[in-house]
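Lab notebook, page 48
Experiment: co-folding of the full assembly
Goal: obtain a model of how the components sit together before planning crosslinking
Operator: M.T.
Materials (sequences as entered):
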Amino acid sequence: MMGDIWMTLLGVLVTTLLAFVTGMFYMGASRKITARVQNRVGPPIYQNFLDLIKLQAKDTAIHHGWMQLLGPAFLMVSAVGSLMFIPVLNKGLFFENFTADGDIIFLLYLMVFGSLGMALGAGQTGNPNSAIGVTRGLTQMVGFEIPWVMAIVALILQYHTTNIAEILEAQHRSGVWSMFANPYAFIAALLAAFGMFRYSPFDIVGAPAELASGPVSENGGKFLGTMMSSHAVFAFVKLVLYVDLFMGGADNLVELVIKTFGLYLIPLTYGMVNPRYRTEQAVRYFYGWPTLFGIIAILYAVFY
Amino acid sequence: MNSLVIMLLIYFAGAILVYAANKFSAVLRDVIVVLAGLLPVALFFSIPAFEAFQFRIAGFDLFWDLGSLAYIFEALVVVVGAASLVYAISYMKGKKNLGYFYMNFFLSLGSMTGILMSQDLISFFIFWEIMTWSSYFIVVFNGYKTNKIGLTYIFFSALGAYAMLTAIVMINTQTGSTMWNDFFIAFAGMSSHYQLLISILFIFGFGVKAAMMPLHIWAADAYSHSPMAYTATFSGVLSKMGVYGLALVMIKLALVSNHFVFSQVIAWLGAVTAALATIYALIQKDIRKLLAYSSVAQLGYIITGIAVGTAMSFMAGIYLAVLHGLFKAALFMVAGAVEKQAGTTDMHKLRALIRKMPLTFITAMVAIIALAGIPPLGGFVGKWMLYESLIGSNHYFLVIVIFFSSTAAFLYAYRFLYGIFLGQEEEEFAHVKEAPLMMLIPMLFFTVLLIVTGTFPGIILGPVANAMNHGMGFRGVQWEMSVLTNVYGDSIHLSVISTIVVVVFIVFALFLILKGRKGTRYVTTKDIANSGEPVRPEDNYHFALDFYKPFERAMAPLYRFKMSEIYGNISDGLVSFFQFTRRLYSGNGQTYVYYVLLFIVILLVFSNQLINR
Amino acid sequence: MNDKNSQKIVDVIKNFARKHSLFVLAYGTGCGAIEIPATMTSRYDAERFGIRGAATPRQADVLLITGYLSTKTLKRVIRTYEQMQDPKYVIGFGSCTINGGMYWDSYNTIKLLDMYLPVDIYINGCMPRPEAVIEGFIGLQKLIAAGKAEGAKKYKENLDWYRANQKKVIKNWVMPDYNW
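Observation: model returned without errors.
Model output:
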């Protein structure tokens, strides 16, 4: 019994560490790739670790109240918490965690937990840019959640389960990844992912030139550092979730890295050649083609 | 004596006593209010089973018994009612006509108890009317300005009541009985015309109180303009009487299974109510109005859950009804506390009360998280069950509409918290103090309850499942303390979820608070990074105006649809029609002679037909 | 391993990270701001040294004063500098920050930035080309690695002197408390 607990704890730590390191490297890689596309050399791939260490080594002499102190913790709950309920590998000693205790509808909600908590932290700083950024982010969320949920509903209807591990298993049993079994759902979810990853043209929340980085504009040092790590973990969480839902998961870490990184490149490269949308344009974008694909996906899952 | 009757008596005697006591002393009045509020709670939870009570009056059999579904709602009535009364003592301090206010408060609590225990249609209708009138008197309590609002409320309520009365008369002519049970049994044997008519009339009657889509326009104004202490009960519990009625009619009459179209229409009405009320909630600038619209939206989920009518969705509907009673009562209490302490409920004026009213903020935050349905608080359980049941019963587009409105609900949830508690501080509110203890106690009580239900929803699901198995005609409904299972057999473990969320949160919160704690100090929210320009004392950069302008722009077509405008057009049309009819009465004797002549001519023309008949 | 040695190792790591991760708040005062885009974009690519822009002073490490400072702007620059969190560095960019440059006899610009803010490193020239800017940043990195970029410390120690200088040129001194 005691051993079980220690194994669980070890699993949690290993998974979190893996997610953190992978996510940080992906963020570094994204900077490198963006630089190469722009014909630059770019920072080293481990640049984000240096940034993180520096941020954590920086003083935080001031805060604007206890909600600001807690804001990044909410983000972390959302990132690390969701990670606990997603099977990272199909079979793995340390990566099982609490997959059996949650399901995908629950994950949908847990994944917004962080941004709402962070929004409260941003709200307390008193900087109007923070609040404007939050309203933009929430508005955009109302946009991309709809095709995303449609894709998930289509999957649930197709496989008659809401458990992620069982969706994985169903894909293995049929031998077809759900991105081929229901391609419309995959397209809807992928288009929704553009909004979820917040690369251009959907980087309307941060928008350094307009909002002075929006919700984080009053946060430096440990706050920014913690947010950065949570973004790393959360990017990994989202990627693994997509891989699990649509690409049949991964049997080993190499496969996982290949699949997740391939997926990661799509919103990234899409963003490189795009300017920034206005908020209402972003919402209308999601209510256009992505929602249509979502509807098709649901009908396809029902009638096919 | 029968314990049901005792509870009823406490409320009605409380109404009279408190009115009388108000003439003598304020302290006596408050003591009676608290006693008569808390006694039913003690009574209700100490008695394991209520026995039935039957008597005959004026040729009608009256039969009172607390059914298993009514038990849940009655629990809500006594608990939220008692909390609101305790809250009211502080909140209503210094206002006039308090005896009148408390009398109507007790009357509506008593009448709700009466509605829930009525097994016959006669006393059901009488109590229903008492409830409507007592709540109407409190809606117009705040004075002259509320007259029009009260008029809308009473107009719709009266329409609903007459619809219900017509249905009751029809039932009586058809079955010769005035008992609910006889009606339920006889319903299947009625002709399909009667079935349709009676159920539409009932749904109309209950739909008014449950603020269902075309009948909702009274709700936002009435909720926001009555005193907040009462609105906690009004929105939290009184609206649930409509839900209770709908549940009875939809499930007991088997409308769900036999009339597929019927249940679909109601379910979609609920979902559309939820979506539209949500997007209207997020453009309000008054927190009371925001909460009022949010109430309408939440009732939409509940109606959808009940109308879909599978075991799980019904459970979700009733669970959400109870939860909505708890968190919306808490939120209206927060609004009342803010109104009382800061003097305004206008989000364009309010600024950053978090440091002045931290406990109120915590209540608001917990209640809002529960409202938004975010784990690990109680609201999530209801949302989860609703989604899973809708997907499981193949209502896949309904679930998208519901999901849209509950995602959009995050927007007003954030606006509520930000508009009152966050943002930039202002001198004007420097004097604001935390709400008095008597107001905090009920608020914190709800906070604790919402946190507990997040991990152990079984304390509500248990009675709901019991009601469904005994009395509502569902078979073998399962429930567990902290495990939820959907139709596919997948389950989530709430205790695990709560543990993970809490542990991760505490770890990182401690890290953020403790790291470099000594070198950290608080600075005011006017000390912001603002391109180097210090915020002057007379400036305030709080962001409140046009908060969700981008959302409004993106959703412009939806905002064009306004039910109140449609009603406005109808009433304008009626007015011009009546104005036309008024012209007939010209006041001129000559004209009337013409009318008489015209009448005689018409008689002559049609005389053959008239006489030969 | 005693405490002092471990502290030394931690310092080395910290300084290495600080050196290679400079978030720059480019305070685009005079004409110098036009050189910043050139420095950041593909031709010169300052990001390969870990230099990137920061949106607000709360996130920034380096305050880059690109050119002349009128007394009116100086007030905002001081405020911005004081809102930055330790460790923080100032780069004076262009001749104007050293001796007033072509504004040497102007009545409303300051001549020597170091009188008002503790400058860690100057980049001279009018204009300094992006090569020179990068050279300047590398100079700052060397100072950081050596632990010698202690302008902020100097500022705190000699705050009275700096304040006196600042108040001498800024007549309407209505400023909130500094926050570090």
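Interpretation: Chain C has one domain: 11-169.
Next step: discuss with group before ordering constructs.
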